[in-house]
Write the structure tokens for this entry.
Amino acid sequence: MKAFVKLLPMAAYDFFRLYSAFHWFRRRLCFLWRYTKLTGCAVYRYAVGWKPPINDHGSRGEVVLNIEDETPQVSPEGQREAAARERPAGLTRERPRFEDDSDDDGGEFDGEEYRVDPTDKLHCGYDSTWDAEESVGPSRRTTRPAAHNFMFSRFENAARDMQNYRHGYPNRQQSTRRDKLNLQFYLGMTRSVPDGVSIDGFHQDWYKDYDRLESVHSYIQWLFPLQEPGMNRDASILTTEEIEEFLQSNIAKENLLKSYKLMLDFYGIELSDEKTGEVRRACNWRDRFNNLNRQTHNNLRITRILKCLGTLGYRHYQAPLVHFFLKETLVHRELPQVRDSVLHYFVFAVLDKRERRRLLKFAYLSYDRREEFVWCPKKIQIKWSQGMSSRTELLHCEDGRQEEED
């Protein structure tokens, strides 16, 4: 009996090791299966010349214009892939262009037709995008059919978090810390914890070290501090005093810009205009986009980056980055695993209400199954659809006059 009692801890320890090994093997096997399936599907689609499904509702208001392929021609292989994705003439429809959309000029979103009643089928009580005044907390709630829609429920949960951010975390207890660790870190006066890296060290030694940027999870809270806690308990929450001093420091803001470029490069993006915040694909975008599709935790990082940009002096950088991701997910369809995060979180991190509305219009007009679009009230969706129909009729009239002249 005594021998049995002595052997019991050893047996339990061996069982625990065997159980851990089993779960390690199961996780690796699942990862291998997902990777094999993803690769196999990609090879099969390329071999058979598969093209993404085209949304064609058959309505008279559908525009049938081709768009310019904005995919950079970086190599013959890239040209072949672009040709494989090209759709037959006459079946494509116009994709809206965010930069040149003249309908967004002036006060398009200021009319009474953009005021939404809480009884709207897709009204979200936590989204103030369409409110005349910014409101804190949920607006008047009503029972709507969309409440039973899974995607709309996810949107409401995300909208609660994003509204809290846009209003500066009104219900959060203010931190009493006076050491201003985030500001000191960005001024080069202290190092990150637990990695022990200075701000210059990140910019110089971690740049293009993609394996380290992917596998280490404790640095993102230091590079992009927020007024909310993150996964790294050793990182300090951003305080109101820090924000005020940060915005007055050219050194801190220049270092934040370098941090932004560091992460953009990690995601296969480059900042093309420091004044406007416009971004474009980097030369290594294919490899980095593949990583974004595999490692979906980067969606949380991008949300944090967008929030930080809005808090620490670069809010005009928010909309260009979100627009870039909308194009890549909805138009070019290169980042399918990022799409939901773009619509649930990225768009609603943009502090400028007019820019949020412009982004949502672009998203709606670029969405294939518009009847499933839940991120905008139904009343406004109908108005945008009618606008597309009017524009189509105008284009048809102009084409008819041109044919008569010819």
About this structure: Residues 63 and 395 are 9 Å apart (CA to CA). Confidence is low (pLDDT under 50) at residues 50-97, 99-106, 393-400. The longest helix spans residues 2-48.
